[in-house]
Design a protein that fits this description.
about 5% strand, mainly alpha, two-stranded antiparallel ribbon, two-stranded parallel sheet, 11 helices, about 300 residues
Length: about 300
């Protein structure tokens, strides 16, 4: 490790100069010494006295009563490793069934984070627990985001009566939740909360683009999803009764509002024109144009 408790502030100030490279130097320049130094002091306190040989050795078994301490120490080591302030020589995961150990040094930072999170959660969980998780997608590859809920479920299966509240900005995690039938709540301004439910699709067929639109109100310019959605809405509106037609027009107006209030750009303009054409088509099929709609929407 490149620094100790003594003279930490001096060391951080020295490496903050532009000609110093490395992740720690970048972090010092980004956050500043006054903000970073207390964090590193707390990290060093977790690791204990600096060893004479400069090598830390830890064994984590996550026993009940020690799990929080072990998990915090593991997070401290991961942080120092990401800052290039500590070189991780070896980190092995040894299964209890005697199978071959796995060297976690070769795992990505996202995989390491996933393992730390799951180990920490499993060691702390009890029956009838309430679990709060904030943005688990950070540092996770999209593949791991898609499988996050599966891995979380495998942990929860060991317990009964547990409830999980998860906050995320990941459409992949939200999509996975909808497919699995997990309730997804959309947060809106002024504390307005609604349940996200696909309007025209079965939950098992929900796409990422549909999740972006329906859950995060974030349209994807020039997407194939929009073209397919417009085709399906118009088809159902034309083939259905008066109520089906009204529901189709309402959905089209929602899309028109969403795309009109998104980021400006040629793609959004083309998308809006497609939506307006769909509305006009349904109005003509009803033989009674909707006077409340205009191209200015």
């Amino acid at each position: 490790m490149e620094f100790q408790h003594g003279g930490l502030e001096t060391y951080l100030t020295r490496i903050s100069e532009p000609y110093y490279r490395g992740e720690l130097s970048k972090e010092v320049r980004r956050t500043g010494v006054p903000a970073l130094a207390p964090l590193l002091h707390s990290v060093l306190d977790l690791l204990g006295e600096y060893p004479e040989r400069g090598v830390f050795e830890f064994t984590f078994d996550f026993e009940a009563g020690k799990a929080s301490e072990d998990f915090a120490r593991m997070q401290a080591l991961v942080l120092l490793s990401r800052l290039d302030a500590l070189r991780l020589e070896r980190c092995s995961l040894s299964p209890t069934d005697g199978a071959k150990s796995i060297n976690l040094v070769e795992a990505s930072s996202g995989q390491q984070q996933m393992l730390c999170s799951m180990f920490g959660l499993m060691s702390e969980l009890r029956n009838n627990s309430i679990v709060l998780i904030d943005e688990p997608e950070l540092s996770l590859h999209p593949t791991w985001q898609m499988s996050f809920l599966d891995r979380l479920s495998s942990v929860l299966e060991q317990f009964t009566g547990c409830h999980v509240i998860l906050a995320t900005h990941s459409p992949l995690i939200a999509q996975s939740a909808i497919i699995k039938g997990v309730e997804v709540l959309r947060m809106r301004p002024s504390d307005y909360v609604t349940t996200a439910t696909p309007l025209y699709h079965q939950a098992g067929n929900t796409s990422v683009e549909e999740t972006l639109v329906d859950v995060f109100s974030t349209p994807v310019p020039g997407s194939v999803y929009l073209a397919n959605e417009l085709f399906e809405i118009v088809t159902e509106g034309e083939r259905g009764d008066k109520k089906a037609l009204e529901e189709a027009l309402a959905r089209l107006r929602q899309l028109s509002f969403l795309y009109a209030n998104g980021e400006e750009g040629l793609s959004h303009g083309q998308d809006l024109e497609m939506i307006h054409k769909a509305i006009r088509l349904l109005q003509l099929s009803n033989e009674a144009p909707d006077e409340n709609f205009s191209d200015a929407e």
